[in-house]
Amino acid sequence: MIFDLHSHTYFSDGMLSPEALIARAQERGVSVLAITDHDTIAGVRIAQKAAQEAGIQIIPGIEFSSQWGRGGVHIVGLGVDINSAVLTEAVTQQESAREARSIAIAERLAKAGFPDALAGARALAGGVSVGRPHFAQYLVACGAVKNINAAFKKYLGAGKPADVKYQWPLMDQVIKWIHDAGGVAVLAHPAKYELTRTKMCALVDSFVAAGGDAIEVISGLQPVAMTEDLLRIAASRNLYASCGSDFHIPDQPWQDLGGFGRLPPQAKPVWELLGYNNING
Description:
Elements: E1 3-4, H1 18-27, E2 32-35, H2 44-54, E3 57-68, E4 71-78, H3 85-111, H4 117-125, H5 132-141, H6 148-156, H7 171-180, E5 184-187, H8 197-209, E6 214-219, H9 224-236, E7 240-244
Parallel strand pairs: 1-2, 2-3, 5-6, 6-7
Antiparallel strand pairs: 3-4, 4-5
């Protein structure tokens, strides 16, 4: 069985609808899929309905934005109760934060010569929370840049004119939200925060101290040496191991659904915490 425990729909910054995501997961041979949109659970119920016909098991999830030091990190909640009052309140809080950030980004883009950026991004978002990818799409659509990567390099990335930092909730708050909603807290892609190994280990230690349960030992296609190192870090801290594609759009083969290596046999797979104790993933 293939477990893909990190994926996105167009309810956050993915390209596909929940139904299209399920169809692609079926084509790719994924057996168990976690829908983990950023700070929202809006696509989970739709995906659950589509998955019944496709024969895919859905794990309700969410990817919360969180603060560690001066930077942001992402915490995935797996197996959350989407009817939880705590989760509903957390999502509302995060949506308000994202709205404030989108307004600030739009103000900076207006100063850079794009007065209609917020309206354009909202139109492209289609009613869901506006994020940086929607602004990037707007910049492509209006001819300011050739592609989304160029939009980030010129306007939206770190240190660029429309780079807006935001003070997200601390990790312990986010992990508490996830646990109170009955879920398992997973540190997303710890090797992708552009930290030294020493600082990455400090991040993992802070995550453990805050009550975290697992880290993503595999995030999309990555070198075997990275997987082995992350597994050692997880084992030394008695953490469970998770894996996922971090799928967003179809034309990124390094993040395609199910397109990553299996967890090493010595790993403690996070799906054991989710009730899949008798399955060898």
